[in-house]
Amino acid sequence: MATLEIVNVRKSFGSVEVLKGIDIAAEDGEFLVLVGPSGCGKSTLLNAIAGLQANDSGEIRIDGRDVSGLHPKDRDIAMVFQTYALYPNLSVWENIAFPLEARGVSKADRRAEAERVAELLHLTDYLDRKPRQLSGGQRQRVAMGRALVRDPQIFLFDEPLSNLDAKLRVVMRTEIKKLHRTLGTTMVYVTHDQIEAMTLATKIVVLRGGEVQQVGAPDDVYNLPANMFVAGFMGSPSMNFMEGVLAADAGGATLGITRPDGGSVSLHLPVPDALAARYDGKRVVIGVRPEAMVDAESETRDGTYQQIEWPLEILEPTGADTIAVLQSNLTGGEEEMVARFSARTSARPGTVVPLNVDTRAVVLFDPDSEEAIFHAAASGSAPPVALAVANGSGA
Amino acid sequence: MNDIVLGQRSLTDRLLRVALYGVLIGFMLFYLAPLYVMVVTSVKSLEEILAGGLMNLPKKLDFYGWSEAWNNACVGTECRGMAPFMWNSLIASTAATIIPTAIGALNGYALSLWRFKGSELFFGLLLFGAFIPFQIVLLPMASFLGWIGWSSSLVGLTFTYIVYGLPFTTLYFRNFFVSFPMDLVNAAKIDGIGYFRFFWRVALPSSVPIMIVSIIWQFTNTWNDFLFASTMTKLESATVMVALNNFVEVANGVKRYNVDMAAAIIAGLPTLAVYLVAGRYFLRGLMAGAVKG
């Protein structure tokens, strides 16, 4: 049980700066997920927390104590590796109890402790087997058992589910979440999979190019993305982007959007007056989640949906609903947009179809800085980590 | 049409195969012929040998050569047989196998899994030692042994073997451990498992294949060594290879080929035994360590 604070941590490999001043704070019992594309620095940051690689500058505080200069074993942490890192010549119980061996615990006590942990992880029947005789999921559990037996202050997970097949990944994800509920220990979890991040985290840190893009609860990161990168990275299918020109008017602003086929549509958005004035006549990018873009047959809440018409390219039925693929109007990009239509939609590919857009769920971005300037979902409050221009009262 | 083509191809195939096996068997016989001659000569009586018929099987089995070689063969004026020299060789080779293998394992482990500043340079220099021709170091080594009082002794010879075995054993183990997953070391660091505990409990038990390679390499090389052994020993401390040379060289009168052949076979038996016992692992270990690293 411990808090974790990362203060202005930097790390370079040669001339490449991998961590460019990271600041994160996790409360006691937090499930902190570091997520980002490969090369974003998330594993480097985890290794710095573990002490496997020294950070060049900055502080890593566990329960208020800076551990930057400490050897990994003195940080009271346990780590689960992507490769499981099981000792191939030791049996399951010896693997689990190996950390205790180094502390001089007697063999009988070690065995008892391994049995206790094995019961928690459903490994009791496999205690005397070698790692190579286990399935991927069982190996993963042994790796977790070895971390559990330590009873550390903080658990570190380095992409622990990446080597499992899709089905098992979902099962183990649930198990890790249960484990966190049972233990209540602070956990730091690295993944490139945004679904793992959403499902597991109490707090998500989105990283890109060695910089923190956004820190927040899964809901906030999903609904109130700080910039276009976060908006596009979190969520699958990812957020749709369209370009338009804002025109200030009574009660907000109207966004005029030119379609890829040359037609034009508009949406009225309840943006604050100051923002409307600032971006009056200027280009902005609107972000809409696929589930906030539905067909005419779908159930829509009153008032918050506005209809636009857009050319439909392809329909992909999934059973529960139908994925509609539309062409985006983003300049230069061949990007596609995705809308969630009902399973019984009457829309025809190749025609211009009506789309109901939930204007309470849209986000506006500055096309140059790519920062979010307006979150409809946070009507009245400013974006959590963004520009000060979004201050002011909502409509 | 297809059948005919296939039939033709399979006929050429079969002919090629017969030719291939023919060549292989020919080579095998060529290589085994000297061994065959040694074995049959060693169990013939001297009269039968002198009567000619090198390739003939013995008319009557005669183990005079074997007992003479083991019990009475002479080096200079001493006629105590091979036994004492076998013993010398066994002591020198065993020590020169176990010690460099143990140190090489620890060296290779440190140079691959627990690298330190300058460890690559250190390894490079050590590797250099593996490529120095032994003739070059013969004199300096001999004078060094004289300086520390180990000249013309089995201890000095064993010491030489150990020193010149280290670059090889270190290379083997280093190349083996280089392909060892680094996450295992990281996990051990986090869990507070120290350098030696990890070595003893995880690294060493995993390195059996390369250990076998190291053992076979050191044992056969030191057992078969003639250069160092003939330079750095005297009569009492001679190894079996030096003794064998003397048996054959100093014999007066009629050459007793049966005794010479028996002695040569006896001298070669231990390395053969080591290879037969561990040879299977030898190939596997070569693949695992030397090639992949």
What does this structure look like?
- Chain A is of the alpha+beta class and 395 residues long.
- Chain A is 23% helix and 34% strand.
- Chain A has a 6-stranded mixed sheet with strand order 6-7-8-3-9-10, sandwiched between helices. In chain A, strands 13-12-11-14-20-21 form a 6-stranded antiparallel sheet.
- In chain A, helix 2 packs across helix 3 and helix 2 runs parallel beside helix 4.
- In chain B, helix 1 packs across helix 13, helix 10 runs antiparallel to helix 13 and helix 12 runs antiparallel to helix 13.
- Chain B has 13 helices and no strands.
- At the A-B interface, strand 6 and helix 2 of A face helix 8 and helix 9 of B.
Summarize the structure.
The complex is a heterodimer of chains A (395) and B (293). Chain A has helices at residues 42-50, 92-101, 107-120, 136-148, 166-183, 194-200, 218-223, 228-233, 273-278, and strands at residues 4-13, 16-26, 31-35, 57-62, 65-66, 77-80, 154-158, 186-191, 203-208, 211-216, 240-249, 252-258, 264-269, 283-288, 293-295, 305-317, 321-327, 336-342, 352-358, 363-365, 372-375. Chain A is of the alpha+beta class and 395 residues long.
